[in-house]
Amino acid sequence: xxxxxxxxxxxxxxxxxxxxxxxxxxxxxxxxxxxxxxxxxxxxxxxxxxxxxxxxxxxxxxxxxxxxxxxxxxxxxxxxxxxxxxxxxxxxxxxxxxxxxxxxxxxxxxxxxxxxxxxxxxxxxxxxxxxxxxxxxxxxxxxxxxxxxxxxxxxxxxxxxxxxxxxxxxxxxxxxxxxx
Length: 180
Hints:
mainly beta, four-stranded antiparallel beta sheet, 17 strands, elongated
């Protein structure tokens, strides 16, 4: 892995690796997030520009992740379990939520503390929008979605007052007012 500035021939080698990198994300000016997948599962790491590699998850079955907007919290769920877990980058601590949700139907709020997620309300599959506080781990119902809306992707407005939903049924976008 090497770093090169645009328009420059100079580059800085950060580290040698044999990892098959499937995701690479800048966390801050000095840190990269790497996700590697192989036959044993997926692993994730933090890599600093001075070459220090820190393991976050190792050899887990395939997992999905969602970084908070400030890149200080990594929400993840194993695909075969779907139970949400959180990794705090500053404290290097893990915490588990006793909540099973599809992480693809979640979005971070602007405060990086509240997480908005859609999940089935009942057996019929009708979904509801929830807010989850990552500090208190409380889950609160916000709004029941119309039966013709099944969330494929969720976006939250800049001031957390609207959910923009890409509907899995017709692929249209719907705006839903959030009151909390």
